[in-house]
Amino acid sequence: QVQLQESGPGLVKPSQTLSLTCTVSGDSITSGGYYWTWIRQQPGKGLEWVGYIYHSGATFYTPSLKSRLTMSIDTSNNQFSLSLNSVTAADTAMYYCARDPHRGYFDLWGQGMLVTVSS
Amino acid sequence: DIQMTQSPSSLSASVGDRVTITCRASQSISTYLHWYQHKPGKVPKLLIFAASSLHSGVPSRFSGSGSGTDFTLTISSLQPEDFATYYCQQSYSDRTFGQGTKVEI
Predict the structure, then answer these.
(1) Which of A49, A107, A109 faces B95 most closely, judged by CB atoms?
(2) Over its length of 105 residues, how does chain B's per-residue pLDDT go in tens digits?
(3) Do residue B87 and residue A112 have CB atoms under 8 angstroms apart?
C-alpha cells in the first residue's frame, strides 16, 4: 500500500525559506510515471495547487509562486521536496503532498503538514 | 489562467436529499474536471475523475456530468457521512481548484 508522508519544520520566520519533504513508501518514486505534487490550503480558504515534479526532475509550478519556488526529487531515498523562499504570513498553510497519475487528478494524498510563518 | 467557479458556496440539506453542486470553468476544459470531498481534519478524497468516472471505492450515490465549461456533482441521497466541503479541479491547463462548496445539515 503506497503512502505519502510530509515532514519539515512547522514554524518558519518571515523572509526565510520554507522547506518540506514528502516520503513515498510502498513503491518506487520512479515507477508509474506519476507527477509528484504539492497542494496547500491557507487557513479558511480552499485548496491551491502549488506544483509538481516528475521523476526525471522536470517541474511545473503555479505561476503565482513560480519566482519563489523550487522542487526537487531524491530517487535514492524515495522523496521529493518543496522549497519556498521569502515567505510571509500569507504562506501559512496546510501543505499536502499528493500523487497525480499523469491524468491531472490526485488519487493519493499525504496527511498534510501545517506550516506557520511567524516571528 | 483558467478560473473555476462553484455554486453555491454553501448549502443546507437533510439526510436523504438529492444534492447538486455546479462548477463552471472560465473557458472550455473538455472533460478535464475532477471532484473531491474534504472533511475537517481529514485528507481530501478523490470522488470523480474526468467529469463522470467514479473513483475506486466511492459510493455510487455520487455522480458527475458535464463537458466544456459546465459541470455538476450530484449526490443522489445524502448520507450523514457526506457532510463536507466539495471541490472541483481542472487539469486542462495547469491545475486549478474551485473555491469549494460546503454541504451542511
Answers:
(1) A49
(2) 899 999 999 999 999 999 999 999 999 999 999 999 999 999 999 999 999 999 999 999 999 999 999 999 999 999 999 999 999 999 999 999 999 999 998
(3) no
- Which of B2, B35, B95 has the highest number of chain A CBs within 10 A, making it the mutation to test binding with A? B95
Exposed / middle / buried, residue B87 (Cβ in 10 Å: 0-12, 13-18, 19+)? buried
- Kindly provide the b/e burial profile for residues B31-66, where b requires at least 16 CB atoms within 10 angstroms of the residue's own CB: bbbbbbbbeeeeebbbbbbbbbeebeebeeebbbeb
Å from A52 to nearest chain B CA? Answer: 10
Measured CA to CA, the distance from residue B95 to residue A21 in angstroms comes to 21
Q: Chain A: residue nearest B1 by CA?
A: A63
Tally A–B CB contacts below 8 A: 57
- Cell triple for residue B88? 472541483
